[in-house]
Amino acid sequence: MSMNATELIQSYFDSDAVARLARLVGLEPEMTGRVLEAGILLQLQALSQSARNPEGEAMIAEAVGALPAFGSVADALDESGGADHLQQAGEMLAPALLGEAANRLPAQVAAQTGADPASVQTLLQMTLPLLLSALGQRGLQAGNIAPMLASLGGAGLEDPQPDGAPVTETASETKTIVVSVAETAVIGAVRVEAEAVTPEAPEELSNEGAPEEVESVESPPAGVVPAALETSPPASVPPAPASQDSISPEVEPLDPGTPEGLLKFLQQRFGGVVGQQIGAVAGFGGGVRKQAALAALPVVLAALVGKAEAGSKLDALARPFAPLTDEDGQVNTALLDSPVEVARIEGQGRGLMASLFGDVNAVTGRLGSALGGSGDSSRRLLALLTPLVLSVLTRAQPAGLAALPWSGLSDGLKGTLPSGFSSLGVLIDSLASGTPLPGTAPTPAPAAPRSMPTGAPARPSPLKPPRPARFETPAPPPSPPARRGGGFPLWLIPLLLLLVLGGYWLVQSRQSADPVTPTPVPDTAAPTSETSTLGTAAGGGMPAMPVQPVFTDPQSGAAVPASGFTLRGTGPSEEVLEVFLGDTRVGGATVGPDGAWSLEVGDGAPIGPQTYTLRNAAGGEMAALNVVVGTADVDGADTTPAGTGGSDTTVPGPRR
Asked: What is an example of a Pfam family matching this protein (predicted)?
């Protein structure tokens, strides 16, 4: 480890920071220090590797600019939900900034230190945004990223291997790179030639090898590939056919109104460069990166077919994602170049997965097995691809998604799978028909809430005065309702809304000279538009992104009266929302033209800590609110609705 990297760890990750991080991940401070020392060096190496190309360097610069300048680790942890936000920031940034090394680093560090792999993974996820913030405060910015990372310990080291040894480039490995990346063929050929020429007799190899290559292309000297011949194929070899990406796929106009035309329309939008970019952002490498999006496309369509035939309102589901594509349905690849925008799209896609795919773990597991990747990479792929597919479908049929040929689409889905991915046919059939996957247990129906008989209140004894309230021992509060598995973590929603609620630092993009920052909508606030202006470039190049429904009042953790209170929030205009307490529906509300909604909760809400969840019309969980019922002043409760959003009625709280 270089001295600069050691200094960085000892100054920023001091003993107090190590002790606090150790408590959070369940490791001893001494072990935590060893994990940080090994893990930060490997993260620096992976960042340095990523910064060797302009795209990777730009992504690192944007991520550093989006994070705040934490004065210390304690400052980051002391923020509301700081540890959770740090972990999720690292989870989302690692695949984009560290590449394929993101999946290997936890196991590698665990093997080096002997620490628990799960604790190591959590610690490294929390460390990455802290490391980027520290680097930004030390002057890391666009223009000096590659040399500065090299000086901190990432110079001259290739992407680390699982056993901790750096990659040693051989002629065969260089050949693999030349085959998979055509544009670097000449560079790779020169590198092989340089490795084959020994310093003892450079002139002999050069003088003997070149004439033999000119006279006989079929028998070149071992290990020598002259750069002059690598630029064009030998005369005896017929020229390779033109790449599919260079041939215009639109031979004849497509009709998205037919199943065949719609499938071809979608394949064109997610093939070629766009598909490769989606696969790379999701964390896939090698040849799978080029096919991952096209292999997952029929899986997403099968889920939409199942929902369409079940009568779901797909238009309301797809409408917020229209800005992700242009009028011709072409994906805006500039969004995929930004880690902040990728995190936002992924977060919104994860909010749809439970309602679309049902058993998300089973679906991502099958997809990951077919693609040869992990379930996490497959989950990320579906979370990114689903909003983009919905956006393209809105462009394919302006009359609405209900006008698309859903009934005939399922028959051709398996035929669109790329070669080698036919095993996904079982998954496609299951999603299109709405039946459980073979080998998985069907999801049990939620049990109806048990009604408790209401008896007459007990009469106090006239011989014994009631005990003063202040001496009563309060009953232990009931545990919060269990969160349903398979959905997007509700506590993570504020992190992905780009300041819809304000104050969440993860997704703060670098602002222009005159920034526009959306704020929560109070009772007298000006109308809120349906799309957030955050992320829009000064020149108007970046499209506005959709706003998700959220709670704005009361604040999380606030005390509310048991006699009744009002829930308020914001969301897209005219969107129909439902509020649940656990699995029990509390009531519904429609977002008004000003972007605000409210719902009055009557008396009868369960006493103690409670978690209310907000769902859209498709059943996707959008936000969560933790309150404590029964400890606020009843007379001080505010039940005046905010904005023009209306609720279906004033509903009593669910009784248990």
From this structure: DUF937
